[in-house]
Amino acid sequence: MKEKYRVANTNKAMFLNCVLTLCLLLTISMTEGRLLEGKLTLTCDTFYGAQEGDNCFTITQSFNISPDLFFKINPNINCDKIFVGQWVCVHGSLN
Fold it and tell me: Considering Cα of 60, then 66, then 72, then 77, what sign does the dihedral take?
């Protein structure tokens, strides 16, 4: 009987440890995000006017930038609706 309680208590303790660890990691993640938020701003250094047939993939290939960077410097872009003449940031920096 004591063994049953010991196993149940161990399981509860493991569960609580996991929950507390997850809470700690989420708190740290949110705090780091807030620290960067107020100090760094993204500035677009070079714009490109989209041409017929352009899409996110062709633009990233043409300017040799990673898709991750492309979406960071163009946070509101809709890759399915790029139109001719749309200004797209192709080079940015953090200030």
Answer: positive
* d(C-alpha 71, C-alpha 60), whole Å: 10
Tell me which amino acid residue 91 is.
Answer: H
Dist CA 93 CA 81 (whole Å) = 25
Instruction: Answer left, alpha or beta for residue 94, where phi above 0 means left and psi between -120 and 50 means alpha.
Output: beta
pLDDT per residue, tens digit, the chain (95 aa), is 556 556 667 777 777 776 767 766 666 666 655 555 556 678 899 999 999 999 999 999 999 999 988 998 998 999 999 999 999 999 988 77
Distance CA 72, CA 65 (A): 11
HSE (side-chain half, CA atoms, 13 Å) at 72: 12
| pTM of the predicted protein model | 0.56
Q: How far is CA 5 from CA 9, 19, 36, 72, in A?
A: 6, 21, 47, 52
